[in-house]
Amino acid sequence: MNKTFSESLSIALSGAKPQVEWLVPLLSCSDEDAVELYKAADEVRAANVGSAVHFRALLECSSYCIKNCCYCGLRKANSTVSRYRLSEEEMIDGAKQAVELGYKSLVIQSGEDMWYTADRMAHIVSSIKKVADLAITLSLGERDKETYQKWFDAGADRYLLRIETTDPELFAFIHPDDDLNYRKQCLYNIRDIGYQLGTGVMQGIPGQTATTLANDVIWMHELGAEMIGVGPFIPHPETPLGKETGGTVNDTLRLVAVLRLVFPCAHLPATTAMGSLNPKGREMALQAGANVVMPNITPTTFRPQYEIYPGKICLGDDAAHCRGCITGRITSIGRTVGTDKGHVIRREKKEV
Ligand code: SAH
Ligand code: SF4
User: Fold this and answer.
1) Domains, the chain, with CATH or none
2) What is the pLDDT confidence band of residue 316, given thresholds at 50, 70 and 90?
């Protein structure tokens, strides 16, 4: 039996282990109750991770992908997308530019592109570490444990791999060439190797319900996720889900707020997908529990080619412009820009 909204909020604030019976009423609450939910999440954010919003400079290094995820514009079968790939030198230049712009943290993301072999990416990571004082996050999809280990040994600090959904049928429906258990194993491997662990889900995948999302939250809690990225699903016309209805800013905000209550110390980004659906989407997320933003530093010539969904913001803005724009957005809501690398906060060890 589901609890009422008020009961659910009290249980969440007591730090209880997440359960469907109180997650669902929060995830599907009315607009009126949502005001209270966001306020509570904002207070938990302030008390646990403070006012700082951490920047993660995002370098999208390749639009090649061997996979056919049904939601994503980069899927292999989409012949309308033109593919690009940054060389090792271009990536090192990107990292140097990130430092010049004052960033302390770099996210390297791409489609599943096997040109970046285990050794080649390890070399790129260690080369960047030699010339740039940056925390490095990789988001390069599924690989075997040896490869993850090699990249960690080369100096990568964090890894992002969204589970997307923990519902076995839904996962299979949207991932024709992936296996849910293998994806979970990848995340266990990433965690056990010692990376700061990032995962997340899309809100609004066709067939997803509040109960599906509640189960996702429970699973990510069991996993011990330390960074959780959630964004609305935005249908891409050149994909099998192109004609479906997408996710919404409102529903994603509820999810962000719930995540803050369940994971008081986690790093939660205000995702680009939120900003793409609503000009103030990222600010709204930052006021409902989020504490991270990911300004783009991909060379503008390549940005339109990294079209995971349509209507992605900032395609024509160079890296310096993005930094200024996002800084303005953060200060406009009374928050500060993080000045350190923004490592995850581990309760038992504090700063790692
Ligand atoms: N290839 C890597 C990283 C690139 S995709 C990977 O799959 O992990 C990064 C994220 O973009 C995915 O995890 C997915 O959640 C999100 N994404 C892809 N297509 C999307 C869409 N149509 N709408 C919203 N988010 C999308
Ligand atoms: Fe490739 Fe990632 Fe897009 Fe799937 S979500 S098609 S793995 S880029």
Assistant:
1) 3-337 (3.20.20.70)
2) confident
User: Ligand 1: residues within 6 Å at CB?
Assistant: 71-72, 109, 111-112, 139, 141, 161-162, 164, 202, 231, 233-234, 236, 273, 308-309
Supply the DSSP string of 23-66, one letter for each residue.
HHHHHT--HHHHHHHHHHHHHHHHHHH-SEEEE-EEEEEE---S
Mean pLDDT of 316-330: 92
CA 72–ligand 1 middle distance (angstroms): 6
- Nearest ligand to residue 75 Cα: 2
Strand partners, 109: 60, 139
Q: Which amino acid is at 144?
A: D
pTM above threshold 0.85:
yes
Atom of ligand 1 nearest to the CA of 308: 19
Look at residue 350 and tell me whether its pLDDT is greater than 60.
no
